[in-house]
From TrEMBL:
<keyword id="KW-0732">Signal</keyword>
<keyword id="KW-0472">Membrane</keyword>
<feature type="signal peptide">
    <location>
        <begin position="1"/>
        <end position="24"/>
    </location>
</feature>
<keyword id="KW-1003">Cell membrane</keyword>
<dbReference type="InterPro" id="IPR050957">
    <property type="entry name" value="BMP_lipoprotein"/>
</dbReference>
<dbReference type="GO" id="GO:0005886">
    <property type="term" value="C:plasma membrane"/>
</dbReference>
<dbReference type="InterPro" id="IPR003760">
    <property type="entry name" value="PnrA-like"/>
</dbReference>
<dbReference type="Pfam" id="PF02608">
    <property type="entry name" value="Bmp"/>
</dbReference>
<dbReference type="InterPro" id="IPR028082">
    <property type="entry name" value="Peripla_BP_I"/>
</dbReference>
<keyword id="KW-0449">Lipoprotein</keyword>
<protein>
    <submittedName>
        <fullName>BMP family ABC transporter substrate-binding protein</fullName>
    </submittedName>
</protein>
<comment type="similarity">
    <text>Belongs to the BMP lipoprotein family.</text>
</comment>
<feature type="domain" description="ABC transporter substrate-binding protein PnrA-like">
    <location>
        <begin position="52"/>
        <end position="350"/>
    </location>
</feature>
Length: 352
């Protein structure tokens, strides 16, 4: 993924309202969860955590951020406060969420998702002594760190895995919407397939023309797309579509052995049903938990830096999952490609 211009970022702000996270039951409004942050006795950093839509329990983006904070509680003696977003909330609610955390003395403050960028820009100026991090952000300020990821590299590796495991030589991809957020997943996956066997056919399905709920909170749409891909001969389908990907897993769970799905962001094998687990080949990992913990640790050490903090394959910020053991026979080969990405011998593209 490239975060090179603010213009490109602005073009997809709406997409990030729902991208990269899965939605749990709607509570009808913004809410906070006290389970993770119940213990206030720590003497370390006081971390404020502002979730994207879906909040903790989404099995993806938000849960990864929470895991990073949990590690901070365990290893840095930190305490925390969570604040969740509500569906279709105005931008002013995000701004107020950040301001409330900062005003209450939480420092640093982690905003989960690109959608917080403009609000962090504004609130960070009001609280110059508070350090802010934005996951996938493009914010600018002396007290702001953007935690960004080379997702095309992890997607390249799961493309290699798919290329090595496909029997039909037909593979599918389900994306939420075309643009600079999801294109790197598709581009990296396509390149990984081609690196193994250029003759493999890749069929892509896009769920929406805009970054709306149809793109990223649409399991029925992904279910329809997955059915079409499998019926068309694909034996492996990778998704980068947030909550929508649940539709893919529903379909693949009904398939015979040898038909696979690939998850995204987190190790989605870990949160799948037993029937689905039999078919989840791997997941393209985006280690938001690592980035969040690193940021809190840097805050404690007094070493936070403004600007972009890139998590790529060299930093183990992206990668692929091996849960289930379905890649045991090809892991050594995949790791050969990984080594070439690390060395720079291979470059994963971020554009289709």
């Amino acid at each position: 993924m490239r975060h090179t211009t603010k213009l490109a970022a602005l073009a997809v702000t709406v997409a990030l309202l729902v991208a990269g996270c899965a939605k749990k039951e709607d509570t009808g409004g913004a809410a906070t969860s006290d389970e993770l942050c119940a213990d206030k006795s720590g003497a370390g950093p006081k971390v404020g955590l502002a979730y994207d839509i879906g909040g903790r329990g989404d099995h993806s983006f938000n849960d990864l951020a929470a895991a990073g904070v949990k590690k901070s509680l365990d290893e840095l003696d930190a305490t925390c406060e969570e604040s969740e977003a509500a569906a279709q909330e105005p931008d002013s609610a995000k701004e107020e969420r950040l301001r409330t955390l900062a005003e209450a003395g939480f420092n640093p403050v982690v905003a989960v998702g690109f959608v917080y960028t403009e609000e962090v820009n504004k609130v960070a100026k009001e609280y110059p002594n508070v350090k802010f991090a934005v996951v996938d952000g493009f914010a600018e300020g002396p007290n702001i760190t953007n935690l960004v990821f080379s997702v095309e590299q992890g997607s390249f590796l799961v493309g290699v895995a798919a290329g090595l495991k496909t029997k039909t030589k037909k593979v599918g991809f389900i994306g939420g919407v075309r643009g600079p957020i999801i294109d790197p997943f598709a581009a990296g996956f396509k390149a990984g397939l081609a690196a193994v066997d250029p003759s493999i056919k890749l069929d892509m399905k896009w769920l929406s023309d805009t970054g709306d709920a149809k793109a990223f909170a649409n399991p029925p749409g992904a279910k329809t797309a997955a059915t079409a891909l499998y019926d068309g001969g694909a034996d492996i389908v990778f998704h980068a579509s947030g909550l929508s990907g649940g539709g893919l897993f529903d379909v693949v769970g009904t398939k015979p052995d040898g038909i696979w799905a690939i998850g995204v962001d987190s190790d989605q094998y870990q949160t799948a049903t037993p029937e689905q687990q039999k078919h989840i080949l791997t997941s393209s990992l985006k280690k938001v938990d690592v980035a969040v913990f690193d940021f809190v640790k840097a805050f404690k050490d007094g070493t936070t830096k403004a600007g972009y903090d890139l998590y790529d394959i060299k930093r183990d910020g992206v990668g692929y999952a091996t849960s289930g053991g379905f890649l045991d026979d090809v892991t050594a080969k995949i790791d050969e490609y990984k080594a070439k990405l690390v060395s720079g011998e291979l470059t994963a593209p971020s554009k289709l």
